[in-house]
Amino acid sequence: MMNLFHKLSQQCSKATTEMYSTSFSSAIKLLHPSLRTPVFNIYGFVRFADEIVDTFHQNNKKVLLEEFKADTYIAIERKISLNPILHSFQLTVNQYGISHNLIAAFFKSMEMDLSKATYDCNGYKEYIYGSAEVVGLMCLHVFCEGDKKMYEKLKPSAQLLGSAFQKVNFLRDVKADYEELSRTYFPDVDFKNFTPVMKQQIEEEIGRDFSGAYAGIVRLPIKARFGVYVAYKYYLSLFKKIKKTTPANILEQRISIPKYGKVLIVAKAGVRKQFNIL
């Protein structure tokens, strides 16, 4: 019967991913079947923590996050939790040997969201590392399936990919972050006076991240490569659309890719896969 509880918990993480992010869930489904469940488990965990700091405004978010953090470590140590999201996450952490340092860095960034409104360069780098890069590294543990040499070799590119994704999210979500949550992640940027020069500097930084990330994607194990490549192409398409958007419009709308655009991205990626040119 324990296997039934494992399965139920992991279905909760999958459902969480599908409900909160159709794009990520679609990309995960393009991974090899053996990799999908553990990545869903990671995303479900990350999503719950993110919801605490971004959404539950009528509650004591600090207490909720502290409890969630404590319950996470208890679940990992005991190898069981009655919270299905944490149970599924601990299964993946323990199976793939995900470093507790990555989990600690993730929670540090979530805690920063509770108090910080603006960031200097060091805080910006620390936040991106904990909120995005470590998530990529958790997934890389799964993709490498215990191959530590491969993990160390691909680690820098995985961090750059997570960084690129997060910075694109920052630009895409400026309206919500700045107006609703009073957050400004980019150092020395005043969104009341967001100039083309400021926007270009940020875009150049993101472009470098994407370039470095691609070098690692093509070296990923074949079971992971296609799904990660599709996620990369999706965010790259978002980035290109953002680059065409004026600074003023960045503040007025949330940039997105329509469904037909997402279908086209997968189709083109499929052709490249077929001809072994990813």
What can you tell me about this protein's structure?
77% of the residues lie in helices and 0% in strands. It is mainly α. It has a single domain (2-274), classed as Farnesyl Diphosphate Synthase. The N and C termini lie far apart (42 Å). The model has no long low-confidence stretch (mean pLDDT 93).
Q: What average pLDDT do the residues reach? A: 93
- Quickly name the level 1 CATH class: Mainly Alpha
CATH topology: Farnesyl Diphosphate Synthase
Helix content: over 70%
List the helices and strands and how they pair.
Blueprint: H1 2-20, H2 22-28, H3 33-54, H4 61-78, H5 84-96, H6 100-115, H7 121-144, H8 148-172, H9 174-180, H10 196-217, H11 222-243, H12 247-250, H13 259-274
Brief characterization of the structure:
It contains 13 helices and no strands. It has 278 residues and is an all-alpha fold.
List keywords for this structure.
Farnesyl Diphosphate Synthase; single chain; 77% helix; 278 residues; mainly alpha; globular
